[in-house]
Structures are given as C-alpha cells and as structure tokens.
Amino acid sequence: MKTAEAEVRAILIADNPETFVTRRIPEVNLEFGGIPGDRHFGVTFPADSRQPMYPRGTEILNRRQITILAEEDCRQISEQLGIEKVLPEWLGANLLLSGFSELTCLTLGSRIIFPNGTGLICMGQNLPCVFPGEIIQQQYEDRPKLATDFVRAAFKRRGIVCAVERPGKIHQGDQVQILINNFSNPMQ
Each residue of 152-162: pLDDT tens digit? Predict the structure, then answer.
C-alpha cells in the first residue's frame, strides 16, 4: 500500500439548515456518522437522486458523511474559471487538506489517518454539480455562466466523500497519513 501525507488546513461544518455552505471550526470530535450537527451527519440516510437503484427515501448506508477537498484543487478550479479564489466553504467541504494534490483520485477504500488514530475511509469521488457553482456565481456576479462552467472546471477536482471508520477528535493543523488502496484486496 502506498502512503502520502497532507495537512489539515481547515475543518468545516454545514450546520445551517438553509444551505450546504460550510463554516470553519478549529476542531471537531468525529463520531460514527460524521460531524455532529452537520447536514450530512448520520450512519444512514434516505436515498436520493444519487442512488437511482433504490426508491427515493429508502434508508441506506451514508457514504457521504465527510466531504474532503484539496487546497490544490480549489486553486486549479479558480484558475480555470479565471477568478481570484474558490473557497472550500462554497463547495460544502468538511475538511480542506494541503500537500496531496491527487486527493480526488483516491481509490475506494483508501484511508486518511489522523495523529491520534482517528480514521476516515474513502467512499468515492465527489462529483461536481451546479449548486456550488451557483454559490461561486454569487461571489462573482459580474462573471456570467460561472455556475455551469464550475461543473466542467471541477471535474476530477471536487474531492472525495468519506465515512468515519474510527471516531476521534481532529484539529486544524493535524498532519494526516493517507493510505492509498491499490485494489489488490478491496476489503483491506
């Protein structure tokens, strides 16, 4: 298994029921289910349009407890859009990592391990959609079509979704170890 390292640059929570936009917090105690109070908290959740194989509303495993972005991807998205910046808050991120630019390419089953042993397991890529693009558009009202341009600019740069594998407290500034699953044994 290959390994890499990164730094937690920001921890964020989506605790406003009116929006998916997140706000920064210095630390959090992750539980099975994610970040208590976050809109995506829970071990299970009702199926939606992302799971067309189940009737809408069916209780299924929550694979989207934590959304993680790479600082490098935010920078690339803003450069491609020709704007000053793209903040992780606007994309609904829960964690912003720096130092591992291949984050969005992490394979299913890869792990992110914090210094105290807290662990996340990668459940897949976070596909871009127009909703974060609309938030970006609000920040740059003089730039038409940013909402739709975002979807193309964020393709394979929108980060990953994870589930909490081992609960614990995490802090801004933590150095994390990334264990990259090579799929030789996906149940590792």
Answer: 999 999 999 99
